[in-house]
Amino acid sequence: MTTVQQELETFLDDTFDVFDRVRDTYTPGLIDQEFGTVSYVGHGIARLTGLPNARLDELLQFPNGLLGMVFNLDTDEVGVILLGDSEGLSAGDLAFRTGRVLDIPVGSSLLGRVITSTGAPLDDLAPPQTMQRLPIERPAPPIMHRAPVAVPLQTGIKVIDALLPIGRGQRELILGDRQTGKSAIAMDAIINQRDTDVICIYCAIGQRSAAVAKVISDLREYDALKYTVVIVAGGGDSPGLQFIAPYAAASIGEFFMQQGRDVLVIYDDLTHHARAYRELSLLLRRPPGREAYPGDIFYIHSRLLERSTHLKPEYGGGSLTALPIVETHAQDMSAYIPTNLISITDGQIYLSPTLFQKGIVPAVEVGRSVSRVGGKAQVRAYQSVVGDLRLAYAQFEELEIFSRFSTRLDEQTRKTLDRGRHVRETLKQPQYRPIPVAEQIAVLLSVTNGVLDPVPLGRIDEAESAIRRAVTEKLPEICRDIHAGNPFPQESREQFLMVAQQAVDALLETG
């Protein structure tokens, strides 16, 4: 047999082998059965030859039902993000075009469910029965479709609702070092929506399974899971699933927003999201930039958070409020990812490890936190207390530093320091104990007007409970007006202070 005949037979054998593999993996409905061949498999990615007509973000189907998303379109190969376990995938396997982009089921049947970032159930229940699916990548609403942020989103946390208010449609970043209570603030915000019409979405990105299980357990315990959708892309999942998770959460939220509903979405956290994207990008040979992140790392977060807004009534009238969470290292707010997100969002809530170690929870550092929009949506009654509260706390923080260097303080300085310590003690709040607006107003009004000055610091919690109970029982009409957003006149303010003083006097007499 000549060399030419041998080469011809080898070529025919290889060709028939490809035809056999196409026949074995044939799936009806795939677009013209156009296929490519896997040339390389890495952790969470694959590179393919062929697929001359593949499009960016198009879904590909691999053997055993594994899906991938086209991410790179190079001259001689296609880079693909794998949306699942790549253990069974190897070089030489075939991938077929599906002709569609990645989407996720949306609808009311998702409420109370725990799902993956592709919509698969994780709660041992049947797959969600939905009639509609939306692409996970969608353009943000145009500016002309947006309405001003005018309605508050109450978290139930005194220091946030009073000094760093959040409006429906706002994007407020929560950042701080590890284990400083970032997720706790988000959980309290979800639990506080129990008696409102706000739908909540909790998106866990790169979290430990035990941490996610605790979140789900707490939501169920406080009866918050029924109006919440939990999307999980855990630390053990592929980086592709972690990358698409927040976009899937945004699409689910947008469905409700376009129905006229108000939605709160938590991205916990975007530090892990950025790392997953960096990993995928480096494996797909995208050029690295600062801290090895690709140059478009800013764009992937901006196109996510720009989808949060408040729509005009003619475009649905709903809102999507985002509370993204990001982790800092050694209190460094000037790191690459935190500064990116600070510049995208409408304010930030900074949690200080120093305050956390002192037992001041939530450990919000007011001086480094800001809300650039929420003040316009704040309940009007807060205006009567916020100015005095911020001034008293700022004076206290400044004086406390200098008082350490002097043992002889004048009477006015001692009073300012004492008032500041009472304010700080009042702003403490245990997790899972959100406080209604009217009760917050009563407590903050009392501490800024000196009603709590005679109370020892160790009994502030008792005095606070007594004041909240008294105003609720004795002044229910004023409490209803506050919740309705009505003005808080001087007469109502004086009645609040009188009832609070009576409650504190009764407490001190008994104890």
What is the total tally of β strands?
16
CATH homologous superfamily title of the largest domain? P-loop containing nucleotide triphosphate hydrolases
Residue share in helices?
25-40%
Based on the structure given, which CATH architecture of the largest domain is correct?
Answer: 3-Layer(aba) Sandwich
Q: Domains counted in the coordinates: how many? A: 3
- What class do helices, strands and sheet pairing give? alpha/beta
How much β-strand is present in the residues? 15-25%
Number of continuous helical runs: 15
Distance between the termini: 109 Å
Q: For the largest sheet, list the strands in their spatial order.
A: 8-12-11-13-14-10-15-16
Report what the structure shows.
This protein has 511 residues and is of the alpha/beta class. It has 3 domains: 14-101, Elongation Factor Tu (Ef-tu), domain 3 (Beta Barrel), CATH 2.40.30.20; 104-378, P-loop containing nucleotide triphosphate hydrolases (Rossmann fold), CATH 3.40.50; 382-510, Up-down Bundle (Lysin), CATH 1.20.150. It is built from 15 helices and 16 strands. The protein has helices at 3-24, 158-163, 182-191, 209-221, 239-258, 270-283, 297-305, 336-344, 353-357, 383-403, 411-427, 437-448, 460-474, 476-483, 490-510; strands at residues 35-41, 45-50, 58-61, 67-73, 78-82, 94-101, 103-106, 114-115, 132-135, 173-176, 198-205, 228-233, 262-268, 319-327, 347-351, 370-371. It has an 8-stranded mixed sheet with strand order 8-12-11-13-14-10-15-16, sandwiched between helices. It has a 6-stranded antiparallel beta barrel with strand order 1-2-5-4-3-6. Strands 7-9 form a two-stranded antiparallel sheet. α10 (383-403) crosses α12 and α12 (437-448) packs across α15. The radius of gyration is 28 Å and the shape is elongated. The model has no long low-confidence stretch (mean pLDDT 91).
